[in-house]
Amino acid sequence: MSRLPALPSLALLFVLPIGGAWAAEAPDQPRTARYAMGPQPLASALAQFARQNNLQLSFDAALALGKTAPAVTGQMSESEALTQLLRDSGLGWSLTQERTLLLFPQPTGGAVNLAPSSVVASGFVELADGPVPGYRATRSATGSKTDTALRDIPQSIQVVSRQVLQDQQVNNLGDALTNVSSVQRGNSHGGSSESFVIRGFKATTYAVDGMLINPLVSRPEALRDLANVERVEVLKGPASVLYGRGNPGGLINLVTRRPGFSPEAQISTQVGSYDFYRLEANASGPLDEAKTLAGGIAVATQTSRGWRDTFRDSNRTYVAPTLRWEPSDSTRVDAGLDYIDQTSPFDRGLIPQNGKISMNADRYLHEPWSRDKADKVSVWYRAEHDVNDWLTLSQMSRWDQSHKDRYVVDLRTLGSDGRTLSRRATDGDERIKTLDMQLEAIARFATGGLKHTALAGFEYIDGKRNVYSDRASLASIDIFNPVYGAQPGRFAFNEETDYKVESYSFYLQDQIDLNDQWKLIVGARYDDTRQRNSTTDADYAVTKTNIDPSKVSPRLGLVYQPTDWLALYASYSTSFTPQSDIQRSGSTLDPEEGKQYEIGAKFDLIPDRLSATLSVFEITRENVAAPDPTDDNYSVQTGEQRVRGVELDVSGTPLDGWQIIGNISALNAEVTKDTVIKTGNRLDGVPIMSGSIWSSYQLQEGPLRGLGFGAGVIAVGERQGDINNSYDVSGYARLDASVFYDINDKTRISLNGRNLTDRKYIETVAGTDGNYAGAPASAVATLSVKF
After folding, report:
1. CA 710 to CA 660: how far, in whole Å?
2. What's the whole-number average pLDDT of the chain?
3. What are the tens digits of pLDDT across the range 565-599?
4. Is 511 within the bounds of a domain?
5. What is the secondary structure of 735-758 as a DSSP string?
6. Following DSSP, what letter does each residue of 358-406 receive, concatenated?
7. pLDDT digits over 617-660, tens only?
8. What is the DSSP string of 575-623?
9. Is the same domain home to 123 and 194?
10. What range defines the domain where residue 115 resides?
11. SS3 state at 194
């Protein structure tokens, strides 16, 4: 498409210059800006004000509790706007030289103190793309692509904050998601990647800052490091109206850290069991005197021998520089780069025997030379411009390129003696390139007493993937008495496949405040996808497949808020996934479709401290490919799977110093239609019951102030190993704990222990080549220093 490569530059020209945003303010004139803030809770208004003026907020959250801010509209200075905003609050304010806004009780009401202050902060106001105070998040953009209170979104959204990651000493996505209900680990593809099962259905990819990565892959190309992740969010259920093609169970979205205009840095070192070593550093601050340009960088490197007898270390290096440019009050530009380089032993895990997995957990069925190498680079930017007091335009682009080199052992079939496992060797190469561009407009207006936040967007994706492999024979291995040292025979060409995809999408959404209690969200998306696959097999025969689905994905949700602490909701959402299977007619199957009906409640167990989400849902996955009963070389589109479930997620701070995050879910996940699979079979890897809880407490007073403790339990029920229910694995409960001490406000030492009872269990079950035992008892010590 020759007209499309110019889109990014055209969009930037379109977004940035509008409205005279480049005009410099005279140095002797007050700083002014245009405001369009409606009446709203004081905390939300302060967050909006701070974001518009690039301020840091610092105040006791209790000061804003139950207070409402009046409308602030028009062109005015910071002082004028803030005076109007706090008019009826009884609060005064001061602004430090570092542009931190401090609030305090002001008996005379509305008084202004412009002198720099040394007031100690005890809280701050949350933004959808910023830090979470503690464990309890209140805002997100994942479910609406706008900065919206979680209680206003009619779908379950769970947030794992940076504080949770630090307290649990988590540096991979799988461990982070144990804090979210109805999420289980999926196939790790030899230990080189991560995939997940959300609400019973496999999630093949995830999003970063609201943009899905690589639509052509069945798993991410490399393990994601969390060094620059501010929060991990999970939108439960179908999300195609905002994100296009996807799985019906839900969407994982990683919100990355942004550089700030106040200098800060942090470095942490970790040493743990099984030769685990990690070094991580983050830094950000202003790059010019005017503080219009800020930069940041996150770096992490780690190595681990692992607890399995795999002969080789795993190594990962991650680098992520970022920039933030604010040339005016109305224009913001973020840009960055991510680079991942990893090497890991290739390991398909354990295999079932006679309906169970009874092998030793540390048994390795590959060879010392079996390994997987991957590197990936991503370049992205987001430009945002406030055209006026009601319209914001934004343009985002992301370019990904990755290379995976596999020299591995593939496990095949177990012999009739129950111990001889056949194998083969594969020398493979995979290269992927993806360009994703989005242009969005957000309009805030009122009609007939109704308040609207309307979103309109266009997305273009251009993706390419090439997969090449050679194969060779390899000696079998005795699974009970393995002898290593086998070398592959002569390699011969096996297969090469080229995938190319172009997609065009248009989406509309309107968040409507019907009144103070009722809120409605409606949306729809149109996707037009053109995918071309070309496969050359071992006999050099070429098969070409064209996939050209177009799909409209609707969404509808309603929220009722009878009180400040309770929100009841109901929603309907959809998803679709293109398929490449062929029917006897020669045509490809229609896309899989997912439909979800969900009702729920979001409520405060303790006002403004401890929040919970209770949801009940049914998801139906339709148009699932099933073998043609007449000719199994083809497929028919009669398969259907259904999940019905109940979930409860809780997070917050019941008391000062006490943090808690927990969840529990019950799922009935089964096959409802198929030509081969028995109706009623349970979906693989999905427990009926699962849950987790983690709690930490830090002493607030006394000579041991700063000393803290944490403990948690992860419990997972029995799971079926495959869709045919040919084997199953038992449930388990795992106990983790930590102790930490803040030497001062900049230095923390901690010791985290996992699986303290040394429980033997299967953590991941994903077919005969994706069963992984959980790690035995282990510990990691961490020293973290801020500057």
Report:
1. 9
2. 88
3. 999 999 999 998 888 777 777 777 888 899 999 99
4. no
5. EEEEEEEEEETTEEEEEEEESTT-
6. -S-TT---S-TT-EEEEEEEEEEEEEEEE-SSSEEEEEEEEEEEEEEEE
7. 999 999 888 777 777 677 887 789 999 999 999 999 999 999 99
8. EEE----B-TTSPBPPPEEEEEEEEEEEEEEETTTEEEEEEEEEEEEEE
9. no
10. 39-127
11. coil
